[in-house]
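Structure tokens please, single chain.
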Amino acid sequence: MSAQPRDYAADDPETALKYAIQHIRGDRVEIVEGVITPVTPSWAHESVAVKIRRQIEPAADRLGCIAASGNLDLPGTNNWYIPDIAVVPADLADDATALLPDQSLLVVEITSKSNCDTDRIVKRRRYAEYGAPLYLLVDRQERSCTLFAEPGELGYTKVDGPHPFGTSIRLPGPFDLELDTSAL
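Here you go.
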């Protein structure tokens, strides 16, 4: 029995590429500036994500949101991101294959040796360009956290940090919470 073809515009390379990566069996992959990259975090990486997620979840619940790692599409580009954590409205996430960065309340990326510059530079610029209101960069190599806010076409206009691990990071409204980084 052969697989049935899916509907997509064959003359649209962006759509075809994004369709293809969603149907790769096994590993999750993202596209960063046209390069297909497997998403295979280590246990140490996931440990940091869990510690952050546990602190954010009460505020996410209060706001009717979820804090998870789902697909974010950047239409008009060859980018399809899977952030380490994105806080998004639960009702949007219920039936979505992918959301847009401006539909999030917060995006968190945690660096790994293999992708630290991607998270520090490329994703920071793209998340701002696509309107993610808050971007928290947890830099495991530099042992610091930086919160970016007020996105615009040229990047984030407000930067809080970098703060060394152990410093509390204030997540502004609608979160209104102090993120403890001492255990990261």
